[in-house]
Amino acid sequence: MRDIFVTVVVFGALLLVFKHPHYGIYLWSWLGYMNPHKLAWGFALNIPFALMAAVVTLTAYLFSKDPKRMPWTPETVLLFIFLGWVTFTTFYAFYPELAWAQWDKVLKIQVMTLLTAMLITSRKRLEGLVWVIALSIAFYGVKGGIFTILKGGIHHVQGPAGTFIGGNNELGLAMIMTVPLLRYLHLQAQSKWMRMGLAASMVLTGLSAIGTQSRGALLAAAAMGGLLWLKSRNKATTAVYIIMAVVLIAAVMPQQYWERMHTIKTYEQDASAMGRINAWHTAINVAKDRFTGGGFEAFQAPTFRQYAPDPWDVHDVHSIYFEVLGEHGFIGFGLFVLIGLLAWRTGSKVIRECKNDPKRKWAVDLAAMTQVSMVGYATGGAFLGLAYFDYYYHLVIILVLTYQIAVKNKWGTLEEGKPAELDAVRTPLSKINNQI
Asked: Domain segments of the chain: what residues?
């Protein structure tokens, strides 16, 4: 039954994409973040829905009347350069077959990320994207939060198998990153019931992230909590929600959870932690030896034999920074970090330019909450190998588009999807026609 439901929904949505190409971005994001087909048990499990959504979206866009233009900003230029660089390093990868398979995945993510920048051309479309991303992850957050309460935090909260968020660590980080986006939607909501629902989602998603029992998620939550309060409008309300989450965590999580978290201080005695550090040294040694790095999927046993301090401790790198460093060298690492820094700067520009304009308060809120989400990724990602997670690149594009729409008024926001230049031309023409 689930297979039939998901298939009908996806194919029905694909029909809408032909008329409204930007719906394809929503569909692709929903499939990529929530992975509804992975919750089925039959034929839908292996249907390439995301690829179908991408192909139909690109085709519909090419044949649509929408303006075909890319917002050329430092971030989008760097995304193109980064994609070019990782393509170059793949030609010199240690393990070509594995590397090209991973390159194919990264290429699809980057193409859709850049297509997002071309199709999301108004505040309405941008908020639609935020809703899709936030609710897709909050689905697991609400479910996992309730599960954590009912089970007393004994069992790990897990994501759908075979996806970016399949493991407890990965899901924990994704949920931490989603709390600020839920807060943004909460700030914009007009309905009392919607605000209450979003508030509950925030608290349960935060609790669910802790329920994954991921140490990285705890560190990300700690780093993000203060910034969430600092950057949020109506700090008293935000403080209440944070306190509620903390009280719930303290009341629900069992003693073994706190004992596990305590190992953060005694990482020298933790085999898993020491294995990660060994992998990090391996990444540095590879980058020092080869300016292209080892290419995608470089962290295999032969690489450790040659470059690791402990050649027999083969471990996943578990860090976005060392993952990129080891796979694409110092140049790739620099591009990866610079993309995030420039996006942060763009968010700060939005806040500075719009903070005194009540009509653009939404842009201030979105930029601030997206920055908070990026802090969660930057902190938790230090202990997770999610360097190519589309969530990070979507956050970058959200900041770029917020600036383009709210500050530069690149496309105009009065009419859905119509460029400001067209509105400027049509207004005097309509006056002339009236005079005639």
From this structure: 1-66, 72-122+270-436, 129-265
